[in-house]
Write a structure and sequence with these properties.
13 helices, 2 domains, single chain, about 250 residues, elongated
Amino acid sequence: MQPAENFMRKYYTDEAWAKRAGIRKQATPEKLEANRDAWRQLFPKVEAVLSLDPAEETVQLVAKEWVLLVEASTGGDFGIQAGAIKAWKDHQNWPLSEQDALLDRFGLDSRGDRDASLKRLEKVGKFIGQAIRRKYYGALESTPVASLNKSSAHPSSQRWVNLFRDVEAALAEDPAGEKAQALAARWAELKRDAEVHASTTQQPNDFLEVLRSKWPPDASVAVINQVARLYRIEQVSSFLAKAMMCGEEKRNSA
């Protein structure tokens, strides 16, 4: 049987594998144990809501916990997450020892009926995926897939993506500070530009609405496809709202 590390290597690019190794090397025993405990506590929470609509708030809360734990476990790196997803899709072909380790991670007993435990895990994983899609893909379901996946000539598309990433990197900043105010100004400018090109009078107020709108489509897809960022969209929108509010208060008091 191949060593676990050698077996998992095939699912990752060279860059992602190196980053994954770096994260594991830096993780302390206490951090690893805390991560393991978090997964074991979260799994029964998800199983408890499997009968609910994936769009319900209770489900969305546990789905958010799940995604943030994935982000913490992978350092938020898209390449590592892509490799983990690829590995998960092939988990039925893993060595039994690796399947057992996977089940143990979620507090499932592999010593009894391994297949039954794997089916429980697969059911939970599928349900989490449905919850994420219902929250962030719902308004895009009526849009032809081809039109979403093809490149767009819309001049502001990359500007939307760049702004999202810049705000995400500045979440620890003071919303009233100079950096946050500059980001809020960029948001306001993009909204004004969009209003000129949009065919409807109803304009988006935050990134959640931008992602669910049809303009510019490739910007929406570029952000949505980064699964690790899905639940941080709310943080980005909230930060921008606070920054704009601070800016408005400052102008009113001047």
